[in-house]
């Protein structure tokens, strides 16, 4: 049963809705609810400058290098996401997360767990993406396990390709496919 307070709230919400519907519809929807992403593909570039504070290999120390090599070592990162390969091209957001070494055998038997999220805003689509998977030297494919805003409920995968390897700069292209 609705009490009086609840009825007043409903009435108020209705009045607000009526008033707002008199305004331009796009003006109302733009800020509050980003447009749902409808495409099946998306790509962008991530910018790594190893001199910047946006990467830390001291995030987690190996547990015991004598006994278990690099097991437990963690790297934390926060990288810019850009529209084009040039670091000066349009800034779309960031990718932030960490990798943790889960193998106690050492290189080349490295099993790096990567967990990250992407903050993305290209002016049309705006939201976050959750990523998870095995980071590898040659081919990294991560699962897109979800998202928010324009990417609410996202499912798919992301392939990482290194396009620039010129220290202190490394640039990676992310190709996303939504299922
Ligand atoms: C994108 O979403 C964020 C978080 O909800 C918000 O702060 C920001 O204003 C949005 N950008 C645009 C252009 O609407
Ligand atoms: C690493 O493990 C070895 C073998 O158990 C042990 O002797 C050594 O003290 C450990 N080192 C550290 C830093 O805990
Ligand atoms: C990331 O973008 C910000 C804002 O444009 C810029 O100040 C910063 O230098 C960029 N960082 C890297 C590592 O490119």
Automatic annotation (TrEMBL):
Keywords, comma-separated and alphabetical: Apoplast, Secreted, Signal
Subcellular location per the Swiss-Prot or TrEMBL entry: Secreted, Extracellular space, Apoplast
One GO process term, biological-process aspect: phenylpropanoid biosynthetic process
Main location: secreted
Residues making up the signal peptide according to the UniProt record: 1-30
Cited InterPro entries: Allene_oxi_cyc_Dirigent, Dirigent
Gene3D superfamilies, sorted: Allene oxide cyclase-like
Keyword Secreted among record annotations: yes
Domain of life where this protein originates: Eukaryota
GO cellular component terms, A-Z: apoplast
Family: Belongs to the plant dirigent protein family.
Quaternary structure annotation from Swiss-Prot or TrEMBL: Homodimer.
Biological function: Dirigent proteins impart stereoselectivity on the phenoxy radical-coupling reaction, yielding optically active lignans from two molecules of coniferyl alcohol in the biosynthesis of lignans, flavonolignans, and alkaloids and thus plays a central role in plant secondary metabolism.
Protein name, as recorded: Dirigent protein
Organism field: Ceratopteris richardii (Triangle waterfern)
């Amino acid at each position: 049963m609705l009490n009086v307070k609840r009825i007043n709230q409903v009435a108020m919400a209705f009045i607000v809705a009526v008033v707002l519907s008199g305004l331009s519809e796009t003006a109302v929807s733009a800020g509050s609810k980003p447009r749902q992403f409808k495409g099946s593909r998306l790509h962008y570039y991530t910018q790594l400058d190893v001199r910047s504070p946006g990467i830390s290999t001291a995030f987690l120390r190996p547990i015991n290098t004598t006994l278990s090599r690099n097991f437990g070592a963690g790297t934390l990162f926060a990288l810019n996401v850009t529209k084009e390969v040039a670091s000066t091209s349009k800034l779309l957001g960031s990718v932030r997360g960490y990798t943790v070494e889960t193998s106690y055998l050492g290189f080349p038997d490295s099993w790096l767990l990567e967990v990250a999220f992407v903050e993305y805003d290209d002016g049309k689509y705006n939201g976050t993406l959750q990523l998870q998977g095995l980071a590898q030297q040659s081919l990294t494919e991560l699962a897109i396990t979800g998202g928010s805003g324009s990417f609410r409920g996202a499912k798919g995968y992301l392939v990482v390709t290194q396009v620039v390897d010129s220290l202190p700069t490394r640039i990676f292209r992310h190709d996303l496919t939504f299922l």
